[in-house]
Amino acid sequence: xxxxxxxxxxxxxxxxxxAGMGAWALGDLLDPARPQGTMFRPRCKRxxxxxxxxxxxxxxxxDPKPDLVRRNGEDLPASVRxxxxxxxxxxxxxxxxxxxxxxxxxxxxxxxAWISEALPEIAKIxxxxxxxxxxHTEAINHDPAITFFQTGSQIPxxxxxxxxxxxxxxxxxxxxxxxxxxxxxxxxxxxIYSRLWGSGFLPAQHEGVQFRAGADAVLYLDDxxxxxxxxxxxxxxxxxxxxxxxxxxxxxxxxxxxxxxFELAYRMQASxxxxxxxxxxxxxxxxxxxxxxxxxxTFAANCVLARRLAERDVRFVQLFHRGWDQHGGLxxxxxxxxxxxxxxxxxxxxxxxRRGLLDDTLVVWGGEFGRTNYSQGRLTATDYGRDHHPRxxxxxxAGGGVRAGLSYGETDELGYNVVRDPVHVHxxxxxxxxxxxxxxxxxxxxFQGRRYRLTDVFGRVVDDLLA
Length: 467
What we know:
Helices cover 33% and strands 16% of the residues. It is of the alpha/beta class. The protein has one domain: Alkaline Phosphatase, subunit A (3-Layer(aba) Sandwich), CATH 3.40.720. The strands form five sheets. Strands 1, 4, 5, 6, 7, 8, 11, 12 and 15 form a nine-stranded mixed beta sheet that branches. A hairpin with a 4-residue loop joins strand 2 (105-108) and strand 3 (113-116). The longest helix has 25 residues, at 330-354. The protein is globular, with a radius of gyration of 25 Å. The N and C termini lie far apart (61 Å).
């Protein structure tokens, strides 16, 4: 029958809808969850993201503002704020007194990068850093802001950046997860949720795996009492046969993902204890990272573990360190945070370089937003706090194809708005994917009838940051 035959019986509305929905469902089923591989020459093979949860103060660490110091205590001019949104925590203040940093800044290295006295070790590697002072985001509160950095959306439920990279590139190490998460132990601050490294609507095998401090780095990985390796192997072989029968009948990709996860867990029973045990590290490692690196779960120990994972070609490692949310008592709180992270962050870059890994490992440092140039609460000669500030903040990167010794972007003389070379969260994601050889516009996944990507419909590669 011709599809345009005027004498043909017209299909019912139900038949049309049924056929359409069936085709849609079939399209979703047959659309491959394919690791696409690199799309052009990659600059790096792996990423270590040192996420500083809470929002480090760029004005006290990387972005000195002499005018802000001179005008300390003056009310923030309306011409600078331009009616922009404030949080409920400082939006009801009668005044917004500008707070110049009490920390001294100096230029470091041949690049002349401005770095605060609070970060003496990072200052020593200034010429290895690509410092971006013009990051900005729309999110002004912690949960949507950190969710945005991890998933490209302020609304929970999307795949995390590490999951996208695993989906797009796969893993060169079959015995360890492609995406590992390390959270500093016993640190207060904003909550860190497992959904921040979740796979969202991507297949479950792309979810991040959290390594914890102590003997059992991954929960529920060990066999129960009375089960040895040979018995576990026989059980998995039988389970695979049952799953293959189910897969043939149901054609559900989640079954394949389940089989892969069982097999990876079996291999991890041997590989995880080996990589998580730092006892074979030489004394020179602890001399470099500091004595904190001997204590499992500290930021320093996690930095050493991140290097060990990079050596084994784990594709994406993310460290979370909480406590950067200084609404009050910033000078003391910031010093504590820097004492915990400064030496190990710099040591990681140096260590990777010594081992020949820095060129193809991208290290990323930063939080979910920055801090205001005005004081939240009472401003004194020795104390102040800063509220959340999404309009401008600083990130730094090292290795992995970025331009070393570069300070990029500029904020205004009072540190409130970006005035040159803005870089959005989506732009940072697009650039990281580009460094790994992936086109952010082509790394997509079909879900509920449309294609999603990490950068949504936005983002651009910031070519000026590339080596």
